[in-house]
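Annotators were shown the component list below and the corresponding predicted structure, then asked to write short factual statements about the assembly.
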Amino acid sequence: MKDNQLTTMLSLENVSHGYGELPVLKNLNLTVKPGEFVVLVGPSGCGKTTLLNLLSGYLKPQSGSVRRSGITRTVYQHDGLFPWLTVKENISMGLRLAEDKKHYENELRELIELINLQGFENHYPHQLSGGMRQRVELARVIAGDSDILLMDEPFSALDYQTRLRMRQELGRLLEKRPRTVVFVTHDIEEAVQLANRVLVLADRPSYISRELQITSMRPRNPTDYAVVEATKAILNEFGLQVTEK
Amino acid sequence: MDKTDEHLHSLASGHLKKSKSIKSVASPLAVLVSIVFIWWFVCNFGIFPSYALPSPEDVLKSFREEIIAGRLINDIVASLWRVAIGFFLSAGLAIPIGLWLGQHAASRRAFLPMLNFFRFLSPLAWIPFAILWFHIGDKPAIFLIFMAAFFPLVLAIMSVVANIPNIYFRVAHDYNYKGFELLTKVTFPAVLPQIIISLRVVYGIAWVVIVAAEMVGCQDGLGYGIWEARNGLRLDSAVCYMIVIGLLGMGIDRLLIQFTKLPSVRWGYER
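Structure shown to annotators:
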């Protein structure tokens, strides 16, 4: 487990990227501070996932540079768990490099308790609900020595109430084990509820059209004043806020 | 799913299983009995001459004869042995080659037409070569089984490997799976459910081919038994071999089905 999160580095400098003739991102600059929770919000197809793929190193930018240091793991929308491994085995992937066997068992038990899946250790992913599966994914990415978590719409395949619960769960996990997070979503409420900083992406070729610092204490409710105000600001940005009634 | 839910679910399916298992035995048994009855009826009323269609009683008699003479058991062992060797040889080569081709698109493009060509070439076309190269005994039959099983197996494994969802490899990269470990802990388990299905299909092909393979170049085996029966105009004995071939084929398939019940491959059949 890490107690020092100050060593991570994650930044994009002047990054542009596209697919063939289609430019997706244009001259993007972004520096994620250690321990920060940054949410990128934007409509589907605006290049959010491309941005995340650049951050993870899966894609190389056409121009500009990406700098990243620290163990980086990604949570996907669904199907990120290995279906041939049990809950326990999937989570223990995150502890693969741990050498101390005794510590390893304790850590595994603690993680399973953390996501409240005691009794499901030996279940396979296909035997779990969507929400449970995403909880296992969360436990897997925070296991061991991970530094940076990249989340690609991790809750968008879940129903609304499960999504609300997962936000709480993620907040709680990060309180216990702080990580640097870049979270991508199209859900404005989700962005505002979770983030230290929200970046609004404008349509293709994308650039950051608005940046919001949200300083109010977490955990937050979707109905908190700060959350509602920030949501309004973002809706405005997208031109979705109705002003005249 | 809630735990109590799951409990209820398993209880309900337990009840279902019981009544299902009675049904699943009763109706096939009824079909079997009627077919034997029709067979008996046709024989007894002399619709066909008895040398052209042996009656159930004749077949039963010849069963007793063959078992007492020890020939049947000997032929079963010989055939099973040949199929097993040919099958394991082809699986042992086809699985690694399929895994490799599945991961290399350029080689896949290069080999695909050739593999398809041989897949559509009946293994029986190799009989002249089998005899010329391997003379008589087990070897030509094993060679023919190998030629029958190898190409469809490589093709099947190659295509499932090529279609493994990319997300598994991205996750594997995050958790530092590399090289041999990536192969054994990610690629192989990701295709294992499909490999088991392919092995079942290919075993079916091998079992069908063994009968023809043993009609040439062998001195024993189930296929040879049928050939011998024809030469001696003993169709009762031929029928008794046919029954054994069918039953053994089904029996071994039941064994292979057991592999699909392994907990770490269930996901491949339940989505």
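Statements collected:
1. Chain B touches chain A through 23 residues (CB under 8 Å).
2. Chain B has two domains: 1-47, 56-270.
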